[in-house]
Amino acid sequence: MDLYFSPLACSMATRVALYEAGQPANFLEVDPKTKQVRTDGSDFNSINPLGLVPTLRTDDGVVLTENAAILQYVADQFPRAGLGTTSNAERSRLHQWLCFIGTELHKGLFLPLLDKKAPPEAKAYALEKYTSRLDYLENHLKGRDYLLDHFSVADAYLVTVINWTMATPPIELAKWPALKAYYERLRTRPSVAKAIAEEFELYKAELARHKAAA
């Protein structure tokens, strides 16, 4: 199984899920600027024409894209890890959370804030329109440890996205104490802590390469 990723990007959610499941994989780093695969210099666009991570190549050679699809695949492929659900109703609830995180938080709120080319008006609009989604999460997480009744691939995705608040000063987690407690708790989970530590080092190396090439 090959996971194409970029350090600290949304692809980290799949790394967390694989670590949680105890499953080996080939982690192939993609430079977000050049779209080259770091291990061999190949063109990532030949794997995924959209040039987006995560991209997963299964052991059967099937190429999957999109966080929700890949995370659900990992949950289904390794059921003993308990990263998915056992009932149809809960599966739909899991899918609901994956879609919410992907559209409302990842693309709606954080993408404009992290995009250096986004105009100030776009960033202001994202904050105005989507910050209420953090209020929604705050209310849901009060008295809960996870999004569902157990750690799932949705939590792997959410902790990955909330980790981006380190680079988005307008969003101060202290304003959402339940969400902040959730994030701080999950950061200490072995699979999450390992993924963040490893990808942070790779991210620093990526920044150094880009600076040297500028």
From TrEMBL:
Looking at the record, the residues that make up the GST N-terminal domain are: 1-82
Which keywords fit this entry according to its UniProt record?
Answer: Transferase
Give GO MF terms, alphabetically: glutathione transferase activity
The record ties this protein, via SUPFAM superfamilies, to: GST C-terminal domain-like, Thioredoxin-like
Pfam family example for this protein? GST_C
Note the superkingdom of the native organism: Bacteria
Signal sequence span is none
Question: Top enzyme class of this protein?
Answer: transferase
Q: Which InterPro entries does the record cross-reference, listed alphabetically?
A: Glutathione-S-Trfase_C-like, Glutathione-S-Trfase_C_sf, Glutathione_S-Trfase, Glutathione_S-Trfase_N, GST_C, Thioredoxin-like_sf
Q: Where is each GST C-terminal domain found? A: 87-214
Could you tell me the EC number(s) of this protein?
2.5.1.18
Protein name according to UniProt: Glutathione S-transferase GST-6.0
Which species? Bradyrhizobium ivorense
Gene name of the encoded protein: gstB_2
